[in-house]
Design goal:
- The protein is of the alpha/beta class.
- 46% of the residues lie in helices and 13% in strands.
- The strands form 2 sheets. Strands 3-2-1-4-7-6-8 form a 7-stranded mixed β-sheet, sandwiched between helices. Strands 5-9 form a two-stranded antiparallel ribbon.
- Helix 1 runs parallel beside helix 2, helix 8 packs across helix 11 and helix 9 crosses helix 10.
- InterPro entries: Glyco_trans_2-like, Nucleotide-diphossugar_trans.
- Keywords: Glycosyltransferase, Membrane, Transferase, Transmembrane, Transmembrane helix.
- Belongs to the glycosyltransferase 2 family.
- Its EC number is 2.4.-.-.
Length: 341
């Protein structure tokens, strides 16, 4: 991925509205929201949608609002006749935002620096209406953490590289910006409101073009969050994410399917060759060649995306990654979920 972020801090260019949808996020709002409200940017507001929370989120938001006048709170309450979801909450937040340029994150996320807004907003130049950011997971000792971080950086390399090549197909809602006019021109999330996920990747997939999309991966713009720590919560998250793939544009579905299937077949054939002792030296040679090639290709970009420590785990995690893609691809196709939180 040949891209060099601008090192000099850009001058403010446009007013920004930061949008955060939060459901039962009292602890995260307490820890992360004040930091977002102290960003080094002269003209911005933060819109938090308190989405049907049953904890103390409302009281915490009231307390924070007394200290920070540029915090706006939108409250969504449960309705007897229908259930709300994240897309409904975000739509209300976008309508309440006073600015044209919108920057999205989640309540459990914390930007790497106070220059997050400044650098993301600088991406809105010329015809750009979508800015794709990067959101890695915080490094911990939990047994799921290494693979979760590996999967995140692999996904980021794919979608950021594709955007640089003029064919953006997804973004991550933890660190994503687009314009209010684009949102309403596209009729918001109307075409996929029936799907619980997709407020980020489906919106980008349907509205990104070669000319209206940019990326920003300066370390100041990384937005960190904690990964799931149990298999159950991780499984639910991945099942939800994979369920939207069928709604991608056909060319992107073919591209992603080709990558997933060919990678999976490589490792299946490699294992079969070893088990049945069919040209095992040749199979090992192909395995090593793939690993060396990956090291050559990924060495700089892994470090650029704060994942340099993952390089030497490539042979193991790459195999798990392609098994995971195919398994969850099938699960997402046949098993649907109806809750986002």
């Amino acid at each position: 991925m040949r891209y060099t972020p601008q090192q000099e801090l850009p001058a403010p260019t446009v007013p920004v509205s930061v949008i955060i949808s939060a459901r039962n996020e009292a602890r995260n709002l307490t820890e992360n929201l004040p930091y977002i409200l102290q960003q080094n940017y002269p003209d911005y507001e933060v819109v938090v949608i308190n989405d049907c929370s049953s904890d103390d989120s409302d009281l915490i938001l009231q307390d924070i609002q007394r200290e920070f006048a540029h915090l706006k709170v939108v409250t969504v309450t449960e309705h007897i006749r229908f259930k709300t979801g994240k897309k409904f909450a975000l739509t209300l937040g976008i309508k309440a935002a006073k600015n044209e340029h919108l920057l999205f994150t989640d309540a459990d996320c914390k930007p790497a620096s106070l220059n997050w807004i400044a650098r993301m907003a600088a991406g809105f130049t010329g015809s750009v209406q979508i800015v794709l950011g990067y959101s890695p997971y915080t490094r911990t000792r939990n047994f799921l953490n290494p693979f979760t971080r590996f999967e995140t950086v692999k996904t980021a390399i794919n979608y950021l590289s594709s955007a640089l090549n003029g064919d953006a197909y997804m973004g991550i809602g933890r660190n994503l910006a687009y314009t209010k006019s684009l949102f309403f021109k596209a009729k918001g999330f109307a075409t996929h409101m029936h799907v619980i996920s997709g407020d980020d990747d489906l919106f980008v997939n349907q509205n990104a073009t070669a000319n209206n999309t940019a990326i920003e991966i300066h370390p100041d713009t990384f937005v960190y969050t904690d990964a799931k720590t149990t298999l159950g919560s991780w499984f639910r998250q991945k099942r939800r994410h994979m369920g939207v793939g069928a709604l991608y544009k056909n060319k992107h579905r073919r591209m992603l399917s080709f990558d997933a299937i060919t990678g999976f077949l490589f490792y299946v054939l490699f294992i079969l060759c070893l088990v049945f002792k069919f040209e095992p030296i040749l199979a090992l040679g192909a395995f090593v060649f793939r690993w060396v090639l990956q090291l050559f290709i990924y060495r700089k970009v892994f470090k650029k995306l704060d994942s340099g420590d993952m390089l030497w785990s490539l042979p193991i995690f790459d195999m798990i990654y392609y098994i995971y893609l195919n398994v969850f691809g099938l699960i997402g196709t046949f098993i649907k979920t109806t809750r986002w939180k």
